[in-house]
Amino acid sequence: MKTIQTRFGEVEYDPENLLHFPAGMIGFPTLHDFIVMPNKKEGPLFWIQSVDDEAIAFVLTDPSNFFPDYHVEPEDSEKQSLQITDDNDDCFILSVVTVPSDQKITLNLAAPILYSPKTNRAIQVILENTEYKSKTPLPVQ
Length: 141
Known about the structure:
By secondary structure, the chain is mainly beta. It has a single domain, classed as BH3618-like (Roll), CATH 2.30.290. It has one helix and eleven strands, in the order ββββββαβββββ. It has one helix at 76-82; strands at residues 2-6, 9-13, 19-20, 33-36, 45-50, 57-61, 92-98, 106-107, 113-116, 121-124, 136-137. The radius of gyration is 15 Å and the shape is globular.
């Protein structure tokens, strides 16, 4: 086990369980390894904490919780990067959540994160020719 000091306090983690981004994230190409933080509150949001830079953490969610019709199908090159070798391997779609000071939460639907639980690898992709935006407001309920 290893430990890092974060905004969440001291966090102990198993290096074998890190979420690995081989290419980093958009705007953060040197951040490759993250800890999925345990949820203290029930709900659809969760944090990932960078191991490479202890000052960086992101809030993520499954966008289908808010946009049931949102669907992204990984391309062959993306499956290769995730080391998905079987069509039955799961690939989850996640979105980065932004919570600005005005509390008008947005999701980045234009650049989703594709995640393989089998390999614990993730990539962030930019969708081309899409109506989705990087700051898509939550739907009004």
